[in-house]
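As agreed, record copied across for absentees:
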Amino acid sequence: MESFSLILAIVVITALAFDFTNGFHDTANAMATTISTGALKPKVAVAMSAALNLVGAFLSVEVANTISKGLVDEAGIRPEVIFAALVGAILWNLLTWLVGLPSSSSHALMGGLIGATVASAGFGAVHGGVLVTKVMIPAVAAPVVAGVAALAATRLSYTIGAKSDGKAAEKGHRAGQIASAGLVSLAHGTNDAQKTMGIITLALIAGGAIAPGSNPPTWVILSAGLAIALGTYIGGWRIIRTMGTGLTDLQPQQGFAAQTSSAAAILASSHLGFSLSTTHVVSGSVMGAGLGRKGGVVRWSTAGRMAIAWVLTLPAAALVGAGAEAVTGLGDWGTALVAVFLVASSAAIWKISRRQVVDHTNVTAAPAASEEPAGVVTQAIAAVAPPPSAPAPVLEFPAQATQPPAHALNVPAQAVGSPAPALAAPIGAAPAAALLAEDLAATIPAPASAPRTDPASSATPASAAVPPSAAV
């Protein structure tokens, strides 16, 4: 019994650790656009988001019940299985945070749970119908629906505000963006905090601490809400930077549309009990808002990396969870080995992250991914840009001349190697005068008011038109 109580305590602590990583991993979902548009200061934004996440944790338990009662068979679950599932979810969260990719903490948790359950009790212990209807279908539909809604809302916002005062409209959109960001934070608490509640409740049922089919106890709700709020306040600055400036460039109108669309989708899914990924919803909304503004550009290479991470999240966490379950099945020493591996891996990831620190002081700086070519819009602007000012004219000499005339350089003939007698004679011949006048006309334009005279056809003697002193 002592060993069982110890493993149950380890599971609860590990679940709260996952909830903490979920908080700082998903802070970007609520506050990235608000920070990137300047509607709120970074530290103020994460503090507000943390408080509203805590409040949201108490609003509903539908998602918690989906995980604790519907996804897997409770009869085939041991506390060690829950522990292995959490190991897979935590490591995937930390790895994607390290590289700044907004992946789904929800799918990481479910992937770890599915992998550990299959390794322990076989595929029959996973309820495939619940997985498809309440996890897989929402995962595909959520970003598309939220993106279309954000695109329409962005265009409507610009259309309505086209005739309004620019500064007043921008101020109003910033205020609306703050309100909608708070709503997303509240919705995040109702959805993501409940996933940890469901996991802890499932562990308590597996350990016999509470009866099967029970709702999460009050202390579970409170501890899960506090853990996700603390993680949110710490701030996942790397992912905030990717979501706020690496995916697209947002104006207040777009930020307001994206946040409002996200909040509506998340709250609706929480009411229906769908274990929706808030990361998928907000990412889709941000891309839709980016496309909704005329001339807006979405950095599709960044979006592509995010999509790859989304596809890999569930199977990668499942593999880690299955491997961890295989080791914990060896006994207490196997569980201890997995715990040591988790702590060591987490410490190594944190140490690597210190090589390039991202925090509230540099979170609005564009990441390297945003330095890619901006695409068709930027190229079109460059194509119609005015050319640079023309350089000064360059004097070209006749092809037959091996060196420029001495008078063009305004130096004595001896300085350029020409024989002195060749230019010693008075410049009275018409060919010499014509060449001199032509060179002077190329370097010294005539006044606009005076008509130009062809020296070769002029009746005036060349010696009178150009004084001999001009030769030197």
Q: What stands out?
A: The CA atoms of residues 94 and 349 lie 7 Å apart. Residues 2-380 form one domain.
